[in-house]
Amino acid sequence: MALYTIGEVAQLCDINPVTLRAWQRRYGLLKPQRTDGGHRLFNEYEIDRIREIKRWIDSGVQVGKVKTLLMDNEQEMADGWRKQQEILLGYLQNGSYHRLRMWLKERNHSESAQILVKHLINPLRQRLLSLQPTLLALRGILDGILINHIARSLSSTAKYPGNHALVVGWNVSDITRLWLEGWIASEQGWRVDILAHSLNQLRPELFPESTLMVWCGEAPCSAQVNQMRLWEQQGQIIWLNHATATSPGGGDEPVARLSAAPAGKKPQ
């Protein structure tokens, strides 16, 4: 997921940076991430939220009342996604795997992979992460269906022009997550391959012809964080750890632009 500086967001949303700061500080409408240097970074969710705030204000709603409206909308959205999780869970429990595949395919026509992964797939997979054998079996079936769906999608997009990326796991056990990250990248213009097994030791120089997109789990160790920042600064990899990634130099620059190859990589 790309991160944007406040200046970039101001241009994208046609709004003054001073207004964005006021929405955050005075009204609590925004919660941007921060770099080590304290600079704001906005993800695509925040950009959508800013546009929604603008729509409310343009329609005549006072800015002080927008937060309540947003909270109501977010709760309604969360309830909607929860219902869709229950639909998928029902298909799994009933053994209706073909219906699940068709449902997933249909949803992917109307929603991006990024939205589906964030609001539907990751939360459901987390619910099924249990010591109970039945739930683990359902998660395994779901993962198999997801990988099959994503493999078809990657095969379809491979015929189109675009930069090549290799999605790699570094010391991770959840291989399905690599496929989910590759799926997101493919919808953002990359021709993606997935390294089927996680690597205990990562050496970017072994893959000189590919842009490496590296996933090292939700909570990478400090050594991984420092090494990933260095590699990213050198243009060797794109770091897929959205939650923990910050600008390597502490400056106000985006962490990873999935829509463009990093420096030093040539389009394939």
TrEMBL record:
Protein name per the record? MerR family transcriptional regulator
* Lineage start: Bacteria, Pseudomonadati, Pseudomonadota, Gammaproteobacteria, Enterobacterales
Spans traversing the lipid bilayer: none
Q: Which SMART domains match?
A: HTH_MERR
HTH merR-type domain boundaries: 3-72
PANTHER family, A to Z: HTH-TYPE TRANSCRIPTIONAL REGULATOR MLRA-RELATED, REDOX-CYCLING DRUG-SENSING TRANSCRIPTIONAL ACTIVATOR SOXR
Report the source organism.
Answer: Klebsiella michiganensis
Q: Name one Pfam family in it.
A: MlrA_C
Which UniProt keywords are listed? DNA-binding, Transcription, Transcription regulation
Q: Which GO molecular function entries does the Swiss-Prot or TrEMBL record give?
A: DNA binding; DNA-binding transcription factor activity
Q: Where is this region: Disordered?
A: 247-268
Note whether Kinase occurs among the keywords.
Answer: no
